[in-house]
Write a structure and sequence with these properties.
The protein is built from three helices and eleven strands; from the N terminus they run βαββββαββαββββ. It has helices at about 15-25, 60-70, 110-120; strands spanning about 5-10, 35, 45-50, 50, 55-60, 80-90, 95-105, 125, 130-140, 140-150, 155-165.
């Protein structure tokens, strides 16, 4: 059976879009890649029904590394302003952890919008409003993903040669 895609990126948050961009860049846009996410197209980066992508701050080092490796620069408006370090507080504000060094405050709504637009320009396809429930296996090998299309409430299946799962803090390739 012919695969629908060479690569499926399951979960199109920051990790997923950077993975999709990297695969596109290093394959010279010669692979059929799709990013699948449960968010609607007009609400990219939403982490859950009440919230947006966390990750307000990131290091300059990480952005520079990405720019150098895949030639995707982050500029304004997705970067709001420079910082010299950030302090992370626990929810009860009892514990704080400093992160020193040059970095950026990110615009948590603009960044995912711009990420998706850039990723599309790099030839990556998108399916939105798909709630993925699992992987499809052929023996030990992952050959696709499955879930529910929230637009139609119908089962959703796509098969692929490679699958990267980029949500719930797991990443398998
Ligand atoms: C309170 C808080 C503060 C944080 N602050 C920072 C910070 O300042 N700096 C920093 O670098 N990091 C921060 N983080 C970590 C931050 O979450 C990550 O940096 C960033 O969001 C990780 O991106 P991701 O793509 O891995 O995950 P996510 O942003 O969670 O992306 C996952 C994507 O997968 C999709 N998805 C999930 N489940 C499914 C499913 N079943 N089917 C289909 N799609 C699905 C979601 O819609 C989402 O788009 C913070 C986290 C928290 C909780």
């Amino acid at each position: 059976m012919e695969a629908d895609y060479d690569v499926i990126v399951a979960g199109g948050g920051l990790t997923g879009t950077i993975v999709a961009q990297s695969i596109s860049y290093y394959s010279n846009q010669n692979l059929r890649i799709i990013s699948i996410d449960r968010n609607p197209e007009n609400l990219p980066g939403r982490k859950s029904s009440p919230g947006w992508t966390c990750g307000d701050a990131c290091s300059k080092e990480a952005v520079d590394f990405m720019t150098e490796r895949i030639k995707v620069p982050w500029t304004r408006p997705e970067i709001e302003h420079d910082v010299k370090g950030v302090m992370a507080f626990s929810p009860d504000k009892e514990t704080k952890i400093p992160f020193d060094g040059d970095g950026y405050m990110l615009n948590r709504q603009k960044l995912p919008e711009i990420q998706n637009a850039r990723t599309k320009k790099m030839g990556v396809n998108f399916d939105f409003e798909i709630n993925l429930t699992g992987l499809i296996y052929d023996g030990q090998q992952v050959i696709g993903v499955q879930g529910i299309d929230n637009k139609t409430k119908q089962p959703y299946k796509k098969n692929c040669k490679n699958c990267c799962r980029c949500y719930r803090n797991y990443f398998y390739a």
